[in-house]
Design goal:
Blueprint lengths: L7 H7 L5 H20 L3 H20 L6 H18 L8 H17 L2
Helix pairs in contact: 2-3, 2-5, 3-4
Length: 113
């Protein structure tokens, strides 16, 4: 696995201690930051937040615990996120739908699932 630049300490082991909900909830926090930066006209913050979100999703994809259907869902979420933030938005995503998908995991992590 290539270790993403901004999250080397997480890749060294701590990320593997988190549940799937915690991992996706953390990635979702950076997704929210990216959306707010984009909508606020802050390209410097936008780029950094997108990079962090994708780094975290890549770490999640590299986690062997999520093999099979879960990994496919995570990979599809990454694809849809890239399409929404960086592409032509062919999936027709909105800021609300994107944040809601990640928020479900953040809430589940808080509830301890």
């Amino acid at each position: 696995m290539t270790v993403p630049g901004t999250h080397r300490d997480l890749a060294a082991g701590r990320w593997g201690d988190l549940t799937l909900a915690e991992q996706l909830g953390n990635a979702g926090a950076d997704v929210g930051r990216a959306i707010r930066a984009r909508d606020g006209g802050r390209p410097d913050r936008f780029g950094a937040a997108v990079d962090r979100a994708l780094d975290l999703l890549d770490l999640t994809l590299a986690d062997d615990r999520w093999a099979g259907p879960r990994r496919r869902e995570i990979a599809r979420a990454r694809e849809v996120l890239c399409d929404f933030l960086l592409g032509d938005n062919v999936y027709g995503s909105t800021a609300e739908s994107t944040e809601a998908w990640f928020m479900g995991y953040a809430l589940a992590a808080r509830r301890g699932r």
